[in-house]
């Protein structure tokens, strides 16, 4: 009888300790974050991603969480296309556009033509979505970053940033190319064309490029059409552009540069962001690795100095890693 009771006690103790060990293992795997909800309750959440540091984790930087809005729409869809008066007046005043159509009428033509889907709602504590944002700075030449860049899940390239002939330094993979009509180029069929619209005419150009091909001029000559996969087209939401201007560029200059906008897009769709090919020359020129140009970032359109300070701050706050190159 006594032997039986002893056996039962040992069995219960073993069961209890293995349950405790399992529970401890589970808690160890789920990085615990305590947050105060809007009702003042304390709740327990897992880390938002499986990388060692997650961009969207707003617990570790007040500076970041004051600026980062996870709820702002990134891409235009048929259901979120209505612009509030603030966004509409700011956005429609950005660029001179003589023949612009009516925004609502133009947007109504978009989604029978292009995918009308929710994207990037696939964040999970079990995933680590890595992104390389590749700017066009000459500092990437001679860097040998190509293989490192190509290891990322997403490789976001900007405007006319070529890969052909520069693979060793910039890589060859492009999952997203962020352009506006004046900077558009042909893409392969696996790449997402991400249009940054700065005026209604830009959206009209996108429609025209895949249909009538009759828009050839905005404030300058633009290609009447481009090679790209229609089913991979995405349009950045005007509200997102204003959000980047207000929260991240803090109202500096007229509007953010394409590179800066792309970097902030990456903060919203990736868990880990590595930055390549950003950095002007010491005389404030946004030089390119693939061509000779002389564009000062102090031209009134963009504030390259402020953007650069914000990008450096993002690194200090452990949100991105800047790969500086050599030049
Ligand atoms: O010149 P472009 O706009 O095509 O370059 C893409 C982006 O790369 C710029 O908007 C800017 O943010 C970044 N860039 C940079 N330093 C350079 C050239 C470009 O940071 N020298």
UniProtKB/TrEMBL annotation:
InterPro entries linked: Beta-gal_alpha2-3_sialyltrans, Glyco_trans_29, GT29-like_sf, Sialyl_trans
Leading EC class: transferase
UniProt KW keywords: Disulfide bond, Glycoprotein, Glycosyltransferase, Golgi apparatus, Membrane, Secreted, Signal-anchor, Transferase, Transmembrane, Transmembrane helix
UniProt key word Cell cycle: no
EC assignment: 2.4.3.4
CDD domains: GT29_ST3GAL1_2
Subcellular location: Golgi apparatus, Golgi stack membrane; Secreted
Membrane topology annotation: Single-pass type II membrane protein
Record Pfam families: Glyco_transf_29
Transmembrane intervals: 21-45
Major localisation: Golgi
Pathway the protein takes part in: Protein modification; protein glycosylation
Domain of life, source organism: Eukaryota
PANTHER family hit by this protein: ALPHA-2,3-SIALYLTRANSFERASE ST3GAL I ISOFORM X1, CMP-N-ACETYLNEURAMINATE-BETA-GALACTOSAMIDE-ALPHA-2,3-SIALYLTRANSFERASE 1
Similarity field: Belongs to the glycosyltransferase 29 family.
Protein name (Swiss-Prot/TrEMBL): CMP-N-acetylneuraminate-beta-galactosamide-alpha-2,3-sialyltransferase 1
Species assigned in the record: Cirrhinus molitorella
